[in-house]
């Protein structure tokens, strides 16, 4: 946590770490020439995408199922993440990595990934559905990419690119300054209202366009370092310790409650009988049973000194 103006500001990385990272669920699509051709590859970098679908319900499962349903055009990505779920649509671990169709084009803006980047990269699709939460979707996109950097030993600064950097397609739109260009957004098929919604919702703490892309790269690089240093293991141990302390705390709370109950006497003690009777007669109390030891003692003192 960083201190800022007296308030603790939770950064993206703090949030990811305090949530212990996220599970990547295997939900492989069927073999198909359109989305899962079954070609094994050795990935040299990762490419970040957005689904481009801001409609309600365009979540991780919907996009994964879309890839699975393709019959006339090529499209897929290794992972898809929304605000709660990360799915692996294609195998993307170790020797089992298969090629997806996420970054194909007639020509490329970089030679870093060779002549055919589909054959040397992993792709992650970030969901931006209107009924989702972009901050959560973004955090999962950071998590997936940092895990790949960690697992495959990539340099986060050079091996992580936007679809935009590889082919020129403005993807993810909120990670490029095209998002500020009304005419370009209209040409991509977004109405004015949709473009406004994108600018209003698909930012992180006010960062949008190239600024958000720089923040994303930096978040991925920082998290990769933490994963390499084994910081997450430490964090998980801390979380476990905290859970143990919480369990111990509620156990003590239970015992305290039991002891507190025991303080209340089930019967009126003999030495207080006269005083209680007096108080009842004077209409001061109507339920004399179940008082605490202190209650009967005070009543007796008041009675004996003549106040009652
Ligand atoms: Zn893309």
Commentary on this structure:
- The model is unreliable at about 1-5 (pLDDT under 50).
- This protein has two domains: about 1-230, Peptidoglycan recognition protein-like (Lysozyme-like, 3-Layer(aba) Sandwich), CATH 3.40.80; about 235-305, no CATH class.
- It is elongated, with a radius of gyration of 31 Å.
- The chain has helices spanning about 10-20, 60-70, 135-150, 155-160, 165, 180-185, 190-200, 210-230, 230-265, 275-280, 295-305; strands at about 1-5, 5-10, 25, 45-50, 80, 85-90, 120-125, 160.
- By secondary structure, the protein is an alpha/beta fold.
- The chain contains eleven helices and eight strands.
- The longest helix is centred in the last third of the chain and has 33 residues, at about 230-265.
- Strands 3-6-5-7-4-8 form a six-stranded mixed beta sheet, with helices on both faces. Strands 1-2 form a two-stranded antiparallel ribbon.
- Zinc ion binds next to loops.
- The site of zinc ion has 4 residues, from loops.
List low-pLDDT spans: 1-6
- CATH superfamily (homologous) name of the largest domain: Peptidoglycan recognition protein-like
- Main sheet record: 6 strands, mixed
CATH class of the largest domain: Alpha Beta
Question: For the residues shown, what is the average pLDDT?
Answer: 91
Strand order of the largest sheet: 3-6-5-7-4-8
Q: What's the shape?
A: elongated
Number of DSSP E strands: 8
Instruction: Find the structural class using helix and strand composition.
Output: alpha/beta
Which small-molecule ligands are present, each listed once? Answer: zinc ion
């Amino acid at each position: 946590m960083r201190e800022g103006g007296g308030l603790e500001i939770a950064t993206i990385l703090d949030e990811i770490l305090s949530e212990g990272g996220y599970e990547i669920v295997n939900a492989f699509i069927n073999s198909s020439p359109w989305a899962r051709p079954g070609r094994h590859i050795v990935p040299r970098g990762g490419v970040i995408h957005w689904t481009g679908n801001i409609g309600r319900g365009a979540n991780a499962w919907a996009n994964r199922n879309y890839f699975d349903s393709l019959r006339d055009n090529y499209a897929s990505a290794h992972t898809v993440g929304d605000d709660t779920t990360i799915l692996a649509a294609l195998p993307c671990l170790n020797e089992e990595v298969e090629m997806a169709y996420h970054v194909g084009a007639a020509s490329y803006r970089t030679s870093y990934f060779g002549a055919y980047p589909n054959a040397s990269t992993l792709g992650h699709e970030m969901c931006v559905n209107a009924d989702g939460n972009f901050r959560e979707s973004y955090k999962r996109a950071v998590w997936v990419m940092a895990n790949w950097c960690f697992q495959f030993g990539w340099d986060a600064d050079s091996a992580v690119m936007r679809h935009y950097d590889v082919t020129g397609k403005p993807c993810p739109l909120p990670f490029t300054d095209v998002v500020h260009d009304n005419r370009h957004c209209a040409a991509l098929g977004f109405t004015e209202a949709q473009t406004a919604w994108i600018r209003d919702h698909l930012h992180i703490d006010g960062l949008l366009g190239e600024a958000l892309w720089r923040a994303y790269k930096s978040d991925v690089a920082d998290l990769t370092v933490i994963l390499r240093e084994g910081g997450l293991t430490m964090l998980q141990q801390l979380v476990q310790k905290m859970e143990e302390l919480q369990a111990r705390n509620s156990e003590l709370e239970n015992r305290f409650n039991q002891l507190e109950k025991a303080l209340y006497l089930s019967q009126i003690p003999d030495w207080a009988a006269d005083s209680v009777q007096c108080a009842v007669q004077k209409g001061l109390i109507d339920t004399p049973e179940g008082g605490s030891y202190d209650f009967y003692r005070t009543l007796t003192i008041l009675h004996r000194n003549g106040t009652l």
